[in-house]
Amino acid sequence: MIKTYLGTFGPSVRAFRLAMLGVVCSICALAGCDVTPIDDTPQPTVCEPSNTMLEIFATLDDADHPCRTWIDQTHGRVARSGSASAAVWSRSTQAGAALLVSAVHTLGVGWFGPANTEIQAELRDPSQEIGVVRLTFVAPEGGALDDDLSPMFDFFNLPTPADQNNNFFLSILPRYDAFVAIVDDQKLTSGLLIPQPDELHLAPPDIYDPLERTTTAPTFSDADAGDMVMAIGFPAEGAFAGEMTASIGTVLSASEIDDVLQMLADAGDEEGFIAYDPEVEFIYRGPAAGGMSGGGVFNESAELVGVLVRATDPLDGVQYVRAVRMSYLVGELNAEFELLPDNEKQVIGQFLDSAN
Questions:
Q1: Among 283, 313, 305, 229, which residue's Cα sits nearest to residue 22?
Q2: What sign has the CA pseudo-torsion 303, 309, 315, 316?
Q3: Yes or no: is domain 4-351 CATH 3.40.50.300?
Q4: Whose CA is closest to 103, among 295, 235, 321?
Q5: What gap in Å lies between CA 107 and CA 29, rounded to an integer?
Q6: CA neighbor of 298 nearest in space, from 74, 65, 46, 28
Q7: Helix or strand or coil: residue 321?
Q8: Cα separation of 223 and 219, whole Å?
Q9: What are the CA-CA distances from residue 275 to residues 4, 249, 312 (Å)?
Q10: Relative to the CA of 140, which of 40, 114, 313, 325 has its CA 20 to 30 Å away?
């Protein structure tokens, strides 16, 4: 089942929410969620993996929270994208615009081609694309969402087999479930009507990135077994709908994943029947909720390492989350670029990450 993620609590309401609310998980950004109880656990003294989640802005308001610094370093790169999430990968391109990553299933069937047809991998000239207004970023100073919206412009999609390009992408595998878009500095005021963006501006968005991870190398990294990671995104429904939330977990080893998948299969969770694809994905133990799909996953150095795509249902209060590796997505993008004729390389190359 394709799933999306999020939910949490702030200091002033933590006790009530922990007692009354739960971890949320859904089969996709467009589907409903089931709510399960979570334990009334005390705030940790160190930032560590947990089966509960953190509401971003409430945590930032808590000067003593052990995860505050990590959240501060990462949250400005994550955007609400429609009813799901996305993350800025790089603001270092020759053209000046920025690179954004998210999950294909958050866009809906038909975005890159008709349903039930095979979609080929493709790199596009974003200056010839029509911008779609769907992004809400954190304010440039951090700590709150901006009031305005930003457009994104199609750039690169992975291939999708015809038998996975249907039914709300319920069967799409992580190997095909990520894309790269271009985002610029446009800020559009929302209202009763969706504003019409200009053609692509060759300027990056002004985002909160205190460590300048989007402008200096490396703009992305990889995740290894045992790493602690933080995923950030927005729930689309449930108790924390619309709130920016973090999930902290531990990346599993291949042997751990074998055991987990068997356990999930025995429990009847669909994720247990989807083979682990180590080139493409990593799996971490941690909470997830509907709406976090497409959000960024970051390591402890605040480097972008993955894109959230799927999660299990809670099993004995524990969930397991799949994320597409940035190393895989970037590798596929670069491989597609090398197939272009020289004249197209000159155009498309301006929009590639130039920091690495």
A1: 313
A2: positive
A3: no
A4: 295
A5: 9
A6: 74
A7: strand
A8: 14
A9: 19, 21, 14
A10: 325
Overall pTM > 0.85: yes
Residues 6+ positions from 128 with CB-CB distance below 8 Å: none
pLDDT at 242: 83
Bridge partners (DSSP) of residue 209 are none
Strands (E), the chain: 4-5, 22-26, 33-37, 54-55, 78-81, 84-90, 98-102, 122-123, 132-136, 150-157, 179-183, 228-233, 245-251, 281-285, 296-298, 304-311, 320-325
What does the block give as tokens for 113? 């081609």
209 contacts 203 by C-beta, under 8 angstroms: no
- Beta strands, E only, 92-160: 98-102, 122-123, 132-136, 150-157
Cβ proximity of 297 and 230 under 8 Å: yes
100-118 burial, b at 16+ Cβ within 10 Å, e below that, comes to bbbbbbbbebebbbeeeee
Neighbours of 203 (CB within 10 A): 14
Beta bridge partners of 180: 101, 156
DSSP state of 83: T
**Cβ-Cβ contacts under 8 Å for 226 (sequence gap 6 or more):** 250, 251, 253
